[in-house]
Amino acid sequence: VQLQASGGGLVQAGGSLRLSCVCSGRRLSAGLMGWYRQAPGKQREVVARVTVDGNTIYADAVKGRFAISKDNAKNTAYLQMNGLKPEDTAVYYCSVSWGLLNTSWGRGTQVTVSS
User: What are the beta bridge partners of residue 91?
Assistant: First the structure.
């Protein structure tokens, strides 16, 4: 299984980015998909998740600004990020869990928000 995250970049505060996570080797739709981020000197934290049933869960810090979605036909998940803030600067990772001991991680994509 491989997860390939892309779409990161440098954006000014208030701008938008759309991250993509392409899953190969297994059906993304059958797992719990999540976006995580890790800022320098901080622990990795969950940003958003989407369940098999399509239910979405967001961290308080991004509610109302970020939207997670998935296209099962393309085996791809997305994270639409609007109203970006400097504190959103981090490496963003996608992850899919198909069970307690069966989780895959992508390599991460850098998001930098300038003030």
Answer: 38, 110
